[in-house]
Amino acid sequence: MNEKKSASLFVASVVVLFCYFFKTGDGSPDEYRLLQDLFYRRDGGYNPLIRPVLNLTDVIIVGFEMALIQLINLDEKNQIMKTNVWLRLRWCDTQLTWQKKEYGDIDWLRIQSDRVWKPDIVLYNNADGRFEVSFKANVLIYENGFVMWVPCTIYKSSCKIDVTYFPFDEQTCEMIFGSWTYNADEVGLTWYLGYPSNHSYPLVDLSDYESSGTWDLVDIPGSLTVAGEGYSKSFIKYELKLRRKTLFYAVNLIIPSLLISILSMAVFYLPSDAGEKMTTSVSILLALVVFLQVLVTNLLPPSSTSFPLFAKYLLFAVILDVCCIVNTIFVLNWNFKTPRTHRMARWIRTVFFGFLPRILLMKRPSNDGGGGGDAGGPAAESLSFSRCSSTPMNTPVPTRRSAIKPQELDLTDMHHSSCPMAARRAGGGSQRARDSDPAAASVQLSSEVNKAVEAVRFISAHLKNEDDYDEVLDDWRYIALVIDRLLFYIYVIATVGATLAILTQAPSIFESFNQEEFKHHYKKIHEYGINATLSKFYDCPMV
Question: What is the largest CA-CA distance in the chain?
Answer without folding.
Answer: 162
